[in-house]
Every structure is written in C-alpha cells, then in structure tokens.
Design a protein that fits this description.
The protein is mainly alpha-helical and 64 residues long. The protein is built from two helices and no strands.
Length: 64
C-alpha cells in the first residue's frame, strides 16, 4: 500500500469516526458541540486532513 493510499485510508477512517460522533450527538457540525476544542476525535480528523494535504511530508501544503 502506497503512502498516498495509507493517508487516504486514515482520512476516511477518521472522517467516519467524526461523522458517527456527530450523528450520536445529533449535531451537524463539531462547532455546535460543547467539547469542540477538547475533542480527541476532532483532533484526530484535523490531523488526518493536514497529513493528507501535505502528503505526509509535514510543514507546507500542496494545494494543487
């Protein structure tokens, strides 16, 4: 499995966990949750998004 595939899989998994949490709490957005800034599920998702955007290289992003 390539690095790109691993990053995409990690992103999909963290997104699924985030959406399940939102559904469980009957919320359409994390911003409506009282634990938005303390939430490990959201932090994991944001981290996965960043990793996906910079192709696991850290630092800068490639928006192309």
């Amino acid at each position: 499995m390539s690095t790109d595939e691993k990053l995409k899989l990690a992103l999909e998994e963290s997104k699924a966990k985030l959406e399940a949490c939102q559904k469980q709490k009957a919320l359409s957005s994390c911003l409506k949750c009282e634990k938005v800034f303390e939430c490990d599920t959201r932090k994991s998702y944001v981290s996965s998004v960043y990793e996906s955007m910079n192709n696991g290289q850290g630092g800068s992003f490639d928006f192309n």
